Amino acid sequence: MMITVKTFIDVPKEKAWEFWTLPEHIVKWNHPSEDWHTVAVENDLRIGGKFKYVMKTKDESQGFDFEGVYTDVKIFSLIEYKLSDNRTGSIHFNENNDSVMLIEMFEPEGAIPENIQRQWCQAVIDNFKSYVEADENN
């Protein structure tokens, strides 16, 4: 069973792709709420390339590394990955005129309720949408 979250972003898919994949942007949007942040990002976006996002609460009371390896990359359309615990996931960039439907699908982690994982991930991609669209208006 996969968890699926999605959002419609009013920017061209090339911009959505760039902001999703470049570390200097990832650290600015990759958090579900204002009490979390991503403090470091490594991202080798190619098949076999590794990624690692170091996430922490701002008070440093909690944190984890989100890391894995890319299993498929199709520029401007698809990213597939396998996490360090062997769960898999994918991000789809579906173009619609000058906008993109971002869809993320992933296998849930067994110890955390699925609704919590879905809410967390939806909050992250909603934050991504806000970040990218705010930049578009500047």
Q: Concise description?
A:
With 138 residues, the chain is α+β, with helices and mostly antiparallel strands. 28% of the residues lie in helices and 42% in strands. It has a single domain, classed as Alpha-D-Glucose-1,6-Bisphosphate, Chain A, domain 4 (2-Layer Sandwich).
Description:
Helices cover about 30% and strands about 40% of the residues. It has helices at about 15-20, 25-30, 115-135; strands at about 5-10, 35-45, 50-55, 65-75, 80-85, 90-95, 100-105. The protein has three helices and seven strands. It has a seven-stranded antiparallel beta sheet. A hairpin with a 4-residue loop joins strand 5 (about 80-85) and strand 6. The longest helix has 23 residues, at about 115-135. It has one domain: START domain (Alpha-D-Glucose-1,6-Bisphosphate, Chain A, domain 4).
Q: What is this structure's SSE topology?
A:
Elements: E1 3-9, H1 13-21, H2 23-29, E2 36-43, E3 50-57, E4 63-74, E5 78-83, E6 88-96, E7 99-106, H3 114-136
Q: How many strands?
A: 7
Largest sheet composition:
7 strands, antiparallel
Q: Assign the CATH architecture.
A: 2-Layer Sandwich
Low-confidence stretches: none
CATH class: Alpha Beta
* Strand content range: 35-45%
Rounded radius of gyration (Å) = 14 Å
How many domains is the backbone divided into?
1
Tell me the CATH superfamily.
Answer: START domain
For the record, give the distance between the C-alpha atoms at the N and C termini, rounded to a whole number: 40 Å
Structural class: alpha+beta
Q: What string gives the helices and strands in order?
A: EHHEEEEEEH
CATH topology: Alpha-D-Glucose-1,6-Bisphosphate, Chain A, domain 4
Shape: globular
Helical percentage: 25-40%
Query: What's the total helix number?
Result: 3
Overall pLDDT level: 96
* Main β-sheet, spatial strand arrangement: 1-7-6-5-4-3-2
